[in-house]
Design goal:
- The chain has helices spanning 24-41, 58-65, 67-74, 85-92, 96-100, 106-109, 117-138, 140-162, 172-188, 194-208, 217-241, 246-268; strands spanning 10-14, 17-21, 94-95, 167-168.
- By secondary structure, it is mainly α.
- The protein has a two-stranded antiparallel sheet with strand order 1-2.
- Helix 9 (172-188) packs parallel to helix 11 (217-241).
- The protein starts with 9 loop residues before the first strand and ends with a helix.
């Protein structure tokens, strides 16, 4: 590094280790260059900004919109295969008692179920916007996988806190997970302080997540908390390892879709 900055120095091996020597007139500059290098690369300063990918929001928005055809299929009977809506909902809803006794797959299947068209439309519209913003910051694969995982973890935490007897459905847990993810990534992106990121997400939670008779506040809060935790880890990885290449990004996107599909195979198996 000193050589690249044209700082004169000499490196000597001694019994106790290596010693870096510089002429007296270069010593102060050498110290300044070493301190700057340590601050930028050894965790002594603020993380390097994580810029937007510039990727089109079409793919993440379309993936969220897959909830619409699934809702249409899930709310009509299929006597040929012996599948009926009430049985499908019973098998896939986030039943806390069942989840606490081993049926953790419900934390994923519940994300795909909705009570009615209004419930579905609200989650799809807001979810598509959040997914697009998230994937623009993190990449499609990491963003969508983190989104699904935040919803899953939020449902699991909600079941654990509520105890047996609580039922819930809907993609909103993942939507608020996306809010938490965006808040955490806002810090790693260098756009705001950690507390400002959390405050922005909490403001959104207060605006959208506490109203309505059927609102599951616990699922929203735990989804947001899971998003914050996952976003902190994801931002740390992205700033140090960089975003994955197209092949890995594609595989992560497939994993994000495959998780709820696998969960439904388990639920109906």
């Amino acid at each position: 590094m000193l050589e690249a900055r044209d700082v004169e120095f000499d490196l000597r091996r001694e019994f106790s280790g290596w010693r870096l020597l510089a002429p007296e007139e270069e010593a102060e500059r050498a110290r300044a260059e070493l301190a700057a290098y340590h601050s930028e690369n050894m965790g002594g300063g603020r993380p390097q900004p994580l810029p937007d990918t510039g990727a089109a929001p079409v793919v993440p928005a379309l993936l969220v919109c897959l909830l619409v055809p699934f809702h249409v299929l899930a709310t009509r009977p299929w006597p040929r295969w012996g599948v009926y809506p009430h049985e499908l909902y019973a098998a896939g809803q986030a039943d806390s008692g069942a989840m606490l006794t081993g049926e953790a797959f419900r934390a994923l299947t519940a994300l795909t179920l909705h009570g009615d068209a209004a419930h579905l439309l609200g989650n799809v519209v807001v979810g598509a916007v959040f997914a697009a913003l998230l994937c623009r910051r993190a990449g499609t694969g990491p963003g969508m996988l983190a989104l699904v995982l935040s919803g899953m973890l939020g449902n699991l935490l909600n079941a654990w806190m509520r105890g047996p007897g609580h039922l819930s459905i809907g993609f909103s847990t993942a939507v608020f997970g996306a809010a938490g993810l965006l808040g955490a990534l806002g810090f790693w992106g260098g756009h705001r302080s950690p507390m400002a990121s959390v405050a922005a997400g909490l403001g959104l939670l207060g605006l959208l997540g506490v109203g309505g008779e059927r609102t599951d506040l616990g699922a929203h809060v735990f989804g947001f908390a899971a998003g914050l935790a996952l976003g902190a880890g994801l931002g740390w990885l992205l700033t140090r390892l960089g975003r994955p290449g197209p092949a890995v990004d594609g595989w992560l996107t497939v994993c994000a879709v495959a998780l709820p599909v696998w969960a439904w195979f388990v639920a109906l198996g």
